[in-house]
Amino acid sequence: MSDRELREQFIKYFDDDKYKFENFCKIFLKWLDFDDIQVTQRCGDGGIDLKCNKKEIEQLNLNTIEYVIQAKCYAINNKVGPRDIRDFRGSKTDMSVRKIFITTSDYTKGAIKEADDSNQPVILINGSQLIDFCKSHGEIIFDVKYYFNVDKFNDLFLSEENKVTKDTFKTIERRITKNDVRARILRIPSEYKSLIQYKSKYKISINGDEYKDYKISSDKVYFGGVTKYYKDFISNVDFEEGQSIWIYDENRYIVSPLVIGLLILSKALSTILCK
What we know:
At1g16640 B3 domain; 2 domains; alpha+beta; 12 strands
């Protein structure tokens, strides 16, 4: 939805009750940290719709400044003119009282010039500013649709200092112990911790087989589901130790472990290495 469409629906909301916009402005001023906000009586207000005050230096409780506000819920193309500003400035208030004009539309150039009076300036807030401020409050007012961006998440976790590249790992060798085989686990090199720390499974290719998801242990130490690669060694009393070679596939952002002494090597290497 465009900003203009959002503003149009925002304005339409107040159609059934012209005073509802004044009550919205009360909430809006509260968000801006004004105090003692009051909606004036609905007749004979002299163009003043709300009153409030604000401490200039909150921590020292000094210089409480009084404000009066005029609130106009106008259609987008119905801009506030210089006469509206003059009439508002002429409302019966002390010169020390500051004035704010809030509208859902906008101001003509003449109105902006009129408001810029060095003796008694008028603060102008238009519809676009209202919408932008409401957006900053997220789902309090508007429905916000979020879209998952994989690239942004990758950038978040793989910052420059720990970004995973082919050069980061090159070739990593790890032992496969007899206990690993008995437990049917494939231990993950610590160098890959940044890749898997937020995952419960990861796609890898073992011995040239198709890439598939393997579950990661809760402590991020090993992959499970590798029994079929160990089946010839589980009951082999002569087996002492194997070795895995890990290669990071930069193009696919996945890992290829190659188990030596246990398994036929992956297609990722052109030669067969074994003990």
